[in-house]
Amino acid sequence: MGARRIGLLGGTFNPVHIGHLRAALEVAEFMALDELRLIPNARPPHRDTPQATAEQRLAMVALAVAGETRLTVDDRELRRDKPSYTVDTLESVRAELAGDDQLFLLLGWDAFCGLPSWHRWQELLEHCHLLVLQRPDADSEAPEALRDLLAARSVSDPLSLNGASGQISFIWQTPLAISATQIRHLLATGRSARYLLPDAVLAYIQAHDLYRAPNA
C-alpha cells in the first residue's frame, strides 16, 4: 500500500453547513485525498445566543458526513482536557500515520494570515503541508511575518506538493456564501434554514431544540 493522503479541516462547526462540506469535498476530490477529516474544535461557544454543546456539534458533523466515504469526523480535540492547539492535533494525528503518509491542513485565507499568532506556529510545517483556500476576492498580500516562509515553502501547484510535510500551496475556491452565524440567526428568529445545511443536521437541530431564541 502506498503513502496515504489525509486532509484535516478544523472548525467550530456550530452548526456544520453545506459551505463547509462542499469546500471539503471539492478539496478531497481535487487533491485525490484518501480521507478528509473534519475536526470540531473545543473553542468555548459565544455567550450571546443559545449554543450547541461540543457533543452536539460533533454529532451534527457525524450526521453530515454519513454516506460520503471521503469525509470523516475526528473527535480528538473534544476528547482533550487541556486547551486544544492545532500543533498538538497535528502531532497526535501524525503519530498514528506511516512516516511517508502525506498530511494536509486546510486553512482559509484569513486563518492563514493569522498564523503568526498561533501557538508554536513555526512547527506546523514539520507535521503537514498547508493548503490555503483562497477566495477569488481575497486580498492576497500575506502579512510581513509570513513572507519569508512563503518565499521558502510555497509551491504553485498544489498537486505537486511532495513528501510528508513542509510545503504550502493555494487552492482557489469560490466558497458558498453561507455562514453558521447566518444560520443561527435564522433559527433564532423562527425562520427556515433548510437547504443551507444537510437535512439530517437540520432534523437534529429541531429534535434538540438548538439555536432557538431564549424566549421562543
From TrEMBL:
InterPro entries in alphabetical order: Cyt_trans-like, NadD/NMNAT, Rossmann-like_a/b/a_fold
Family indicated by similarity: Belongs to the NadD family.
Catalytic reaction list: nicotinate beta-D-ribonucleotide + ATP + H(+) = deamido-NAD(+) + diphosphate
GO-annotated molecular function: nucleotidyltransferase activity
Domain of life (superkingdom): Bacteria
Pathways involved: Cofactor biosynthesis; NAD(+) biosynthesis; deamido-NAD(+) from nicotinate D-ribonucleotide: step 1/1
Ribonucleoprotein as UniProt keyword: no
CDD domains: NMNAT
Organism expressing this protein natively: Ectopseudomonas composti
EC nos: 2.7.7.18
Protein purpose: Catalyzes the reversible adenylation of nicotinate mononucleotide (NaMN) to nicotinic acid adenine dinucleotide (NaAD).
Pfam families reported for this sequence: CTP_transf_like (PF01467)
Protein name (database record): Probable nicotinate-nucleotide adenylyltransferase
